[in-house]
């Protein structure tokens, strides 16, 4: 007889945990009508059992003992929303050991420890739901696992960190510097007191690790993702990019080409006309290109209690349906069918480049710089020279045709050693077609 009553246990009752409970309780009747199942929260474990979350709980639901939740026979699905690596990993492995299915929003845990977790789940015959781990309320995990399963994925581009996108949006439209935009993001609650994970690309890299694994059938390989943040960008760089026809975004990029896969996170200049360049504020967007479907774009809120809670509930409902239908394991989690795929080093990628050189205003500066670029097969597409900066240096901006990253790194090293250069060169990779 099919199981119709599904018990849920939630570990972590912060912002997302509260949003998940609200979505489950407030939409309980809608969920029951659509599924024919009675999905109910049996226990919630959190160290803080006294804070008012603005929701009504029955007596005995909120406890401070995660082990009691993990061992409760009435709980079929454990929802881990506490974050961090430890003890979240141990709780999830204990849930799997006890034969319980798991739903998590923990991208850092999955990106760094996920191979162990998915392996344990496969051996035990339980499911891992992780829709909420990437892009909040955007159902991009389901898109890659199911919607585009008949495609070879050619590329995935993502704005998948709302904090950095908010900061870059402020810098773009209000022409403020990074530090001022960050301060406002912190005031509004978009950025943490320590924003390192967001502004240095770490959070984005965690999410890209998961997307790349789904898109290309590779093991979760966070250590192989190239990571670069937005802290060196200035309002002038963003204004100059606009003059050249581009917007600057912190992009997660995964591509399959020439028998290798590249995974990288860095500031990127995107043509104004590209849809993803129009994604502003704290919103997220993921662009996926498949060989059959062509170009597709998914847009929405990438964080917050209710958008992320919506994604968690979607996983709970999917797993509940599978339990009821006796079809657990119908859709694999992370399936490393292409475990031996070649991963491309950042030095081997090819791109167009934006350079901002800080050079002293002397005769022959441009010819010396262009000569070094030319010696590395880096061809100049356009040049912009602005007025003198403090200290007598002049911002010299160069946009290149496609070049190899290793050649760019060698050229920048040689140029920065010249006595005519006042400061380290900044370069930004450029996506789009060459003019």
Keywords:
6-stranded parallel beta sheet, Alpha-Beta Plaits, 36% helix, 12-stranded mixed beta sheet, 14 helices, 3 domains, alpha/beta, single chain, 435 residues, Dihydrodipicolinate Reductase, domain 2, Rossmann fold
Walk me through the structure.
- The protein is built from 14 helices and 18 strands.
- By secondary structure, the protein is α/β, with parallel strands linked by helices.
- The chain has three domains: 5-137 and 305-325, NAD(P)-binding Rossmann-like Domain (Rossmann fold), CATH 3.40.50; 140-301, Dihydrodipicolinate Reductase, domain 2, CATH 3.30.360.10; 349-430, Alpha-Beta Plaits (2-Layer Sandwich), CATH 3.30.70.
- The mean pLDDT is 95.
Secondary structure elements and their pairing?
Blueprint: E1 5-11, H1 15-26, H2 28-35, E2 38-45, E3 62-63, H3 66-70, E4 77-80, H4 88-97, E5 101-104, H5 107-124, E6 128-129, H6 140-147, E7 153-159, H7 162-174, H8 178-187, H9 196-199, H10 202-216, E8 226-227, H11 235-243, E9 246-257, E10 260-271, E11 283-290, E12 294-301, H12 305-325, E13 342-343, E14 350-360, H13 365-375, E15 380-385, E16 393-400, E17 403-404, H14 405-416, E18 421-430
Parallel strand pairs: 1-2, 1-4, 2-3, 4-5, 5-6, 8-10, 10-13, 10-18
Antiparallel strand pairs: 7-9, 7-11, 9-10, 11-12, 14-16, 14-17, 14-18, 15-16
């Amino acid at each position: 007889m099919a199981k119709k009553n599904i018990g849920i246990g939630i570990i972590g009752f912060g912002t997302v945990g509260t949003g998940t409970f609200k979505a489950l309780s407030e939409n309980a009747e809608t969920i029951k009508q659509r599924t024919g199942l009675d999905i109910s929260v049996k226990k919630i474990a959190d160290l803080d059992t006294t804070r008012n979350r603005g929701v009504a709980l029955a007596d005995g639901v909120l406890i401070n003992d995660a082990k009691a939740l993990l061992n409760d026979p009435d709980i079929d699905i454990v929802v881990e929303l506490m974050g961090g690596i430890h003890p979240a990993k141990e709780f999830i492995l204990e849930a799997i050991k006890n034969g319980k299915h798991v739903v998590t929003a923990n991208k850092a845990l999955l990106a760094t420890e996920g191979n162990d977790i998915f392996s344990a789940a496969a051996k035990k015959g339980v499911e891992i739901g992780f829709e909420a781990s990437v892009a909040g309320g955007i159902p991009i995990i389901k898109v890659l696992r199911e919607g585009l399963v008949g495609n070879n994925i050619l590329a995935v581009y993502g704005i998948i960190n709302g904090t950095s996108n908010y900061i870059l949006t402020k810098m773009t439209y209000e022409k403020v510097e990074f530090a001022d935009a960050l301060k406002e993001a912190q005031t509004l609650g978009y950025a943490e007191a320590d924003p390192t994970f967001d502004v240095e690309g770490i959070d984005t890299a965690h999410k890209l690790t998961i997307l790349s694994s789904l898109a290309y059938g590779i093991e979760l390989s966070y250590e192989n993702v190239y990571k670069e943040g937005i802290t060196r960008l200035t309002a002038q760089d963003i204004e100059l990019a606009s003059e050249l026809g581009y917007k600057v975004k912190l992009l997660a990029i995964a591509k399959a080409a020439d028998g290798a896969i590249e995974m990288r996170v860095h500031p990127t200049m995107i043509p104004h006309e590209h849809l993803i360049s129009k994604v502003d504020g704290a919103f997220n967007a993921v662009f996926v290109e498949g060989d059959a479907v062509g170009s597709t774009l998914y847009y929405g809120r990438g964080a917050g209690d209710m958008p992320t809670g919506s994604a968690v509930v979607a996983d709970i409902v999917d797993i509940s349906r599978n339990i009821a239908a006796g079809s657990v394991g119908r859709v694999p989690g992370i399936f490393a069918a292409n475990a031996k795929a070649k991963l491309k080093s950042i030095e081997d990628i090819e791109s167009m480049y934006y350079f901002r050189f800080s050079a002293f205003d002397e005769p022959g500066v441009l010819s010396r710089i262009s000569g070094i670029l030319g010696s590395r097969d880096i061809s100049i597409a356009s040049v912009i020279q602005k007025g003198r900066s403090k200290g007598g240096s002049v911002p010299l901006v160069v946009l290149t045709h496609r070049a190899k990253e290793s050649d760019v790194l060698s050229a920048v090293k040689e140029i920065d050693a010249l006595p005519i250069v006042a400061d380290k060169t900044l370069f930004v990779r450029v996506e789009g077609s060459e003019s």
